[in-house]
Specification:
Elements (H helix, E strand, L loop, with lengths): L1 H9 L2 H4 L3 H6 L1 H4 L3 E3 L5 H5 L4 E3 L10 H15 L4 E7 L6 E7 L2
Antiparallel strand pairs: 1-2, 3-4
């Protein structure tokens, strides 16, 4: 639950309201946060993209997110996507970065 507390401390809006007590009681049912959106709406074009995932601050810069993305790309390809958009929150300007990955 340390990781969830790290997200809450960072103020990430999708983790702030998380119920730590429930997650602690059934952690196996709680873990595993990666999303693949098959289509982009206006909001996902700006904030989210096709593939969304999070890495707790204490596990960053270890290749965890890279591995999550590596495993998600074949799933996106199998769903018929030919390219995926990733959006990343930056620590420096620009605050939001956008990357298109072509799937072949």
């Amino acid at each position: 639950m340390h990781g969830l507390r790290e997200f809450r401390h960072e103020g990430l809006p999708w983790w702030v309201g998380g119920d730590l007590e429930t997650a602690e009681q059934d952690f196996a049912a709680f873990v595993g946060r990666i999303s693949i959106h098959h289509e982009l709406n206006d909001a996902l074009h700006i904030e989210g993209g096709h593939i969304g995932y999070d890495t707790v601050p204490s596990s960053r810069d270890r290749g965890v997110a890279t591995e999550m993305l590596r495993q998600a790309l074949p799933v996106a390809r199998a769903r018929g996507l030919t390219a995926v958009l990733l959006t990343c929150d930056g620590t420096n300007r620009p605050l939001k970065r956008y990357y298109w990955i072509t799937l072949s």
